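TICKET: design request
STATUS: open
ATTACHED STRUCTURE:
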């Protein structure tokens, strides 16, 4: 066998390697940050449930986090402009570490809700600084590679952070301290990096009327997707504990749903590139509604059945947001990509504030599986609206459409939108 390696291959490989080295420190910081967030986010509902917190209180943790996240997306650019990227990131990561430790000291529902809002604020600010730095390193030639690495780090790190919960006892303070340590570790790569500070962060402009006129399906769809994902993301662990499965199995359930969504984005995205995206939203949303309804009616108690059904659920539910974003950008001008996508991201955030409250209400008044009655209702509404709108407006021709791009809304800010390869025609 003869192996051929051309000069062009060598240059391309070197370019990829150099791009990776340039952002390595930033991605390391991101990894620790997301790991800490994943561990702390799963720890709170498990420990809160063990302490006897009401389901409503646990749901409000998700609402508070989403509220803090949205607030930070709107206000963080001003703070960063005043003190600079390094100082701002240090402050955000420090707040996240302090909050993680304080939640281990103040084991009380009201305190946790307030502190969780601070975590959401700190995490969004941290993400915006990192994404701004990555944008500074990205060019139109390597934007896709850097964006892909960033998504891999996000999905991988959240999984590692959640799986840590299976290696200890949630009744002790160990995991609170581990979360704080991970947030502190996120400071080190950024603090010692020689990368120059990027340009000031861009402020988010939210024009609800323009967003709705551009795409009613994406407008309502992103809110409803946020409702479903916010409910499951916040209360999925509470549901798992109520079914009697072990802590390790709960961590595996939550991680499997996230990874299922990451893997399914590729085939669903290809499908949406070849047909009317509203049909894809209707089909996937309908399938997610069916799975949610099945969990609600069957009420499985065997760990393997629960893991399988929630993995399928996640594989469907977490693919809807990027399809909705791609559909909206089909109808917008390329220069409005960042404005449209950032607006949809905030709409998704508003949905995640509502979902945990509705999910908690259903779990308390019906059964733990009532959580999936709420997600099924949201997904069925997405399906119905997409079908109705498909009869009212012709689709954009395939050759003129925006390309689908894998993205996770939970850990991307408006600055991350500018890193998306679809923003490659922006001025460098």
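STATUS: resolved
RESOLUTION: sequence designed for all positions
ATTACHED SEQUENCE:
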């Amino acid at each position: 066998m003869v192996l051929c390696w051309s000069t062009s291959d060598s240059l391309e490989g070197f370019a990829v390697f150099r791009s990776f080295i340039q952002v390595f420190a930033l991605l390391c910081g991101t990894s620790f940050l997301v790991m800490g967030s994943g561990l702390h986010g799963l720890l709170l509902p498990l420990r809160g449930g063990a302490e006897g917190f009401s389901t409503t209180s646990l749901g409000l943790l998700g609402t508070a986090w989403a509220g803090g996240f949205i607030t930070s997306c709107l206000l963080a650019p001003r703070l960063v402009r005043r003190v600079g990227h390094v100082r701002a990131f240090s402050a955000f990561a420090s707040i996240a570490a302090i909050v993680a430790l304080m939640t281990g000291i103040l084991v009380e529902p009201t305190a946790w809700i307030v502190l969780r809002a601070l975590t959401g604020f700190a995490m969004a600010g941290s993400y915006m600084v990192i994404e701004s730095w990555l944008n500074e390193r990205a060019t139109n030639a390597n934007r896709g590679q850097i964006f892909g690495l960033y998504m891999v780090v996000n999905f991988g790190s959240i999984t590692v952070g959640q799986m840590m919960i299976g290696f200890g006892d949630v009744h002790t303070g160990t995991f609170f301290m581990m979360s704080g340590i991970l947030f502190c570790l996120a400071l080190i790569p950024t603090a010692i990096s020689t990368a120059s500070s990027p340009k000031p962060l861009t402020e988010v402009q939210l024009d609800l009327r323009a967003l709705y006129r551009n795409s009613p399906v994406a407008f309502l769809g992103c809110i409803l997707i946020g409702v479903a994902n916010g409910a499951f993301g916040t209360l999925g662990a509470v549901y798992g504990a109520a079914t009697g499965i072990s802590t390790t199995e709960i961590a595996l359930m939550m991680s499997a749903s996230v990874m299922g969504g990451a893997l399914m984005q590729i085939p669903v995205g290809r499908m949406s590139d070849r047909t009317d995206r509203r049909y894809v939203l209707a089909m996937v949303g309908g399938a997610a509604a069916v799975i949610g309804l099945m969990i609600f009616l069957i009420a499985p108690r065997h760990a393997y059945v629960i893991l399988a059904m929630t993995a399928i659920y996640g594989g469907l539910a977490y693919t809807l947001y990027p399809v909705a974003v791609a559909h909206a950008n089909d109808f917008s001008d390329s220069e409005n990509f960042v404005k449209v996508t950032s607006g949809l991201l905030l709409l998704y955030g508003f949905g995640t504030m509502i979902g945990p409250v509705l999910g908690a209400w259903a779990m308390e008044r019906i059964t733990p599986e009532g959580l999936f009655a709420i997600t099924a209702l949201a997904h069925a509404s997405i399906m119905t609206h997409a079908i109705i709108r498909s009869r009212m407006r012709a689709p954009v021709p395939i050759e003129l459409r925006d390309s689908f791009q894998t993205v996770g809304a939970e850990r991307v800010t408006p600055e991350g939108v500018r890193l998306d390869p679809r923003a490659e025609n922006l001025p460098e």
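CLOSING REMARK: The mean pLDDT is 85. DSSP finds 16 helices and no strands in the chain.
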